[in-house]
Fold this protein.
Amino acid sequence: VVATPGRLMDHYKRKTLRLDKIRTVILDEADRMLDMGFFDDVTKIIEKIRNRRNLGLFSATISQEVMTVSWMYQRDEFYNRHHSTAVNNSTVKPDAENRPDITQYSITVSPLEKISTVLQLLRTMAFERTIIFCNTKVMCQHLCDDLRRAGVAVDCIHGDIPQKKREQVMARFRRGELPIFVATDVAARGIDVDDVDAVFNYEVPEENEYYIHRIGRTGRAKKHGVAYTLLSDFPSRLRLDNIARNTRSHIVPATLGDDGSVTPAAQ
């Protein structure tokens, strides 16, 4: 059974679903799930599954809420620090082999140059699949419209896009029919595509963990990925410095040449 907590509890109360034979419980995107107000629902569900043998909490970041649920309901838990996965009776060693291979760049540009910078990188690098992240749905739609006017094959998904349309956009992206899509953080989770070539942070994310989720869309399945973060003001630079420090990310300042080449800045 794959379900949201509210819908699962609804079926349970209407006796259209039984939980007595469930053996394994998995909470995907555990940090966001528990942070979004589902803590009580999730704990109630776990407590009703009396025959549970395994509980897996999966997330790119571990929040206090995840730690609390782990402490309350798991036994002999193990943590994979690089994948931030809490699992029961199983472990994945955090060695260099399973770390994502992602080169991370920051590029400083003026606000008026951001769109032209994205266009130059997209046209020079010729990525097959690219995701561009914005912080708000207004900026997401605005950037998508500007890229379309520039002749780029692009679409977007954000909170105002109907679920059916979101699914259609994602299906086209997975099939390789759509090379670029612009998204808010609502799309950073649940994107299961192994061959995303590049991720652009058109805006620096507001939360440290959002950065991890965003760039984690590339560099999957042992493939190399690249992430570009555009900096257009001093606050965004400070925020990215804080992200790098707290997530231990190696973000390389770089400059963009006239030919579209990216060159690491002299340190």
About this structure: Residues 81-94 have pLDDT under 50 and may be disordered. The helical segments are 5-13, 30-48, 64-73, 114-125, 137-149, 163-175, 208-215, 234-247.
